[in-house]
């Protein structure tokens, strides 16, 4: 589409053939947009929210929240334990082996709550499918 602009007395003027070409293109785009909108409306009317879909969505969101909150606690706890172990090793380097072993056992126990939340999230996820 070529718009021919003519400059006359400081104003921009479009010749008649370019104006008609522009209007024709706009009308064609409007027809395409109307057809697309009607097709989208038909698709949306067919895709009504059912109770089963709502339960599935709630279960999937619940599984995600379960895993999110279940991972926060062990992450904070393990970081805190590692930090305190590093402080203790700095004060008493001769006990580094004992402190490291104790820290790893504590972190494993702390991680078990994250694993429990993973199991619960998987049960929810696989039940609603």
Concise description?
The chain has 129 residues and is mainly α.
Q: What is the CATH class of the largest domain?
A: Mainly Alpha
Helical proportion, percent range? over 70%
Task: Quote the distance from N terminus to C terminus.
Answer: 52 Å
Structural class category = mainly alpha
Strand fraction: 5-15%
- Taken together, the total number of domains comes to 2
CATH superfamily of the largest domain: F1F0 ATP synthase subunit C
The major sheet is characterized as: 2 strands, antiparallel
Radius of gyration from CA coordinates: 33 Å
Order of helices and strands: EEHHH
List descriptors.
disordered N terminus, elongated, 129 residues, mainly alpha, two-stranded antiparallel ribbon, 3 helices
Describe the model.
This protein has 129 residues and is mostly helical. It has 3 helices and 2 strands; from the N terminus they run ββααα. Strands 1-2 form a two-stranded antiparallel ribbon. The radius of gyration is 33 Å and the shape is elongated. 4% of the residues are buried.
Architecture blueprint of SSEs:
Elements lengths: L4 E4 L2 E4 L1 H31 L4 H41 L4 H33 L1
Antiparallel strand pairs: 1-2
Helix pairs in contact: 2-3
